[in-house]
Amino acid sequence: MRKVSAFFLLALTASAHADTAECERHMLSSYPFPHRPTAEQALALKDCSADNLYYGIGVHFDYVRARHCALTKDNHDVLMMLYANGYGVPRNYPMAKMAACRADAAPAETEARLERLARMQTGKEGPSPKIDICDDATSGQLAGRCAVIQSGLKEQEREGRIESLVTRWSSAEKQAFQQLRKHAEAFFTARSNSEVDQSGTLRSAFVIGERDALMEDWLESLRAFEAGQLPVATQEEFARADRELNQAFQKLKALPEQGYPGSVKFADIQEAQRSWLAYRDAWVAFGKVRYPAVAPHAWKAYFTRKRTAMLVKLAASRD
Fold it and tell me: What is the pLDDT of residues 168-205, one digit of tens each?
C-alpha cells in the first residue's frame, strides 16, 4: 500500500460517481455470475468486512471470501483491487474499471484509479502491477478508512512484537502487564479523542494516527526497558518534572476557550489528564513486579516528562 500524500488528502472531498463517458461505457458490464456468492455463502457473510478479509486484519486474508463479501456489501473498490491485481480471480481490467466506476469515491479518486488501471493494462506499470484503494485518496472519508486499515495492520504487527517480549514472563508479570495495558489503552483513547482537533474532514485519520503513535511509543519504551535501559531519577528530579507538568497544565487552563486547537476543550484535557494519572500509576505497579530495582519515583519522572511534552505541544498548536 503506497503512503497517502498530504497533497491528495487535502484535495477535493466531495464523494460521487464519476460522470464520464468512460464510466458510462464500463457501467454496461456486470460481475460474472459464477463469481457471486451463493445464498448460503451470502448469509454467512452478513457481518463480514471486505477490507478485513482483503488485508487480513483480524482474520487470515481470504480473497475469495473478500470477493463474496464485497459483492454482498456492494464494496466495489475492494472488487476493483481483486480484479485488477488478480487476487482470487484472473486479472480482469474491464471488470476492475467497472468496479472503479461503481465505487462510492470522490471524482478525483475515480479518475486516478481509471488512469492507473489503464497504465496497468498497457504494461506501463511493469510485469506484476498492483493497485490499492489508498494509493490516491483525496476525500476525508477514504482517508479515514485507509487510516483504519493501516492501523489494523500496524496493530497486528505490534501484537507479534508484544508477544515475543512477554512470552517468557511469569504469570504474575503477565497479569500485571494486562493491568498496565488496560490503563494504557484507556489513556491513549482519551488522549487521541480529547486532545486532537476533530473539526476537519480528516479528523478520523488524525485521531487514529495519534493513537497509533502513542501505542508505538509505549511499545518502544517497553522494548528499551527489556533491553536494560531502565528509568533512573532522584526524588528531586521527579519533583522538578512534576512542577514542570503542573506549569504546562496551568498554562493550558489559563487559555480562553477559543484558544484551544479546533474542537479541543479544557474539560477534555482534564479528562485525559485523569486517565494519564491512572496510566502512570499502572506503570509503577507493573514496574514493581517486572523491574523491582527501579524506584517508583523514577517511573513517575519518566512518564511525567512524556506527558509534559504532550501538553506543551498542545499549547503550542492552539489557534
Answer: 999 999 999 999 999 999 999 999 999 988 777 778 88
Task: Measure the N-to-C terminal CA separation of the chain; round to a whole number of Å.
Answer: 34
Q: Which long-range contacts (CB under 8 A, 24 or more apart) does 277-284 make?
A: 278/183, 278/186, 278/187, 279/183, 279/184, 279/186, 279/187, 279/303, 280/304, 280/307, 281/183, 282/179, 282/180, 282/182, 282/183, 282/184, 283/180
Half-sphere exposure of 257 (CA within 13 A, CB side): 4
92's CB contacts (< 8 A; 6+ apart) are 83
Mean pLDDT comparison of 187-196, 247-256, 292-301, highest-scoring range: 292-301
The tens digit of pLDDT for each residue in 214-231 reads 999 999 999 999 999 999
